[in-house]
Amino acid sequence: MKIILNQDVANLGDEGDIKVVADGYARNFLIPKKMAVAFNKQNLNIFEQKKLSIEKRKEEKTKDAMGIIDRLANEELVLSMPAGEQGKLFGAVTSSTIVEELAKMGLTVEKKKIEVPEHSIKEVGTYTVAIKLYGGETANLKVTVNAAEKAAE
Questions:
Q1: For a designed S-S bond to 121, which of 6, 56, 80, 93 qualifies (C-beta 3.0 to 4.6 A apart)?
Q2: What CATH number should be reported for the domain holding residue 9?
Q3: Which residues, other chains included, contact 141 with Cβ-Cβ below 8 Å and sequence gap of 6+?
Q4: Of 46, 62, 78, which residue constitutes the final position of a domain?
């Protein structure tokens, strides 16, 4: 089935793109959730009229992504977590932890866009975390985990 996307859909396309997808995917998921509309002359004309505003939004998203890449390239996230004597953390640093720390710095990033090595950091050290941004861009963030306190035996 041929559709026109109303919004950006991961692994499919951006707003305004015309795509061919499975009938069931379009009828049961994309169209009911208003992520897409069926491809026809009427809907195509509507999107042609919106084309300038869609292009402007795409430029803004790209500009924001480049700004985040520039900012993260110069930043280092330092976390203090409780750890044992061998450097093993009591708990783990996950993408949720990183989202919270980035929010404190004034950056808003979705949790699902952050790729932590091996899904979580469980030891003290320095790691590189990839953050997926708009347009296939990726920013690398240096994360240093320090031991906040040693376990008393």
A1: 93
A2: 3.40.5.10
A3: 72, 75, 77, 98, 128, 129, 130, 131
A4: 62
Alpha carbons 19 and 48: distance in angstroms, whole number: 15
Q: Are residues 105 and 137 in the same domain?
A: yes
For 37-70, what is each residue's pLDDT tens digit?
Answer: 999 999 988 888 888 888 888 888 888 877 777 7
53 and 104 in a single domain? The answer is no
Output the pTM of the full model.
0.61
